[in-house]
Amino acid sequence: xxxxxxxxxxxxxxxxxxxxxxxxxxxxxxxxxxxxxxxxxxxxxxxxxxxxxxxxxxxxxxxxxxxxxxxxxxxxxxxxxxxxxxxxxxxxxxxxx
Length: 97
Fold this sequence. Notes:
alpha+beta; 3 helices; globular
């Protein structure tokens, strides 16, 4: 079964409040088996546009990735994020070997 991933690009407009989003989202991540592979960090923009923060989160399955995003817990966190940041987000199914 293929893993699932969230790939997000984020511009945090209110850094002093970003912890509110992280605290609200953490239970959803834990419930759905999320593992952070990339959480910010140095990067080089090679093509297209970029945002200041990049995130890649791995889930045990594609279905778990979708379930986490659509969960009531995460949607409450997302409402906070929408107030303090701009984001581009995809949920993608990993390659099945």
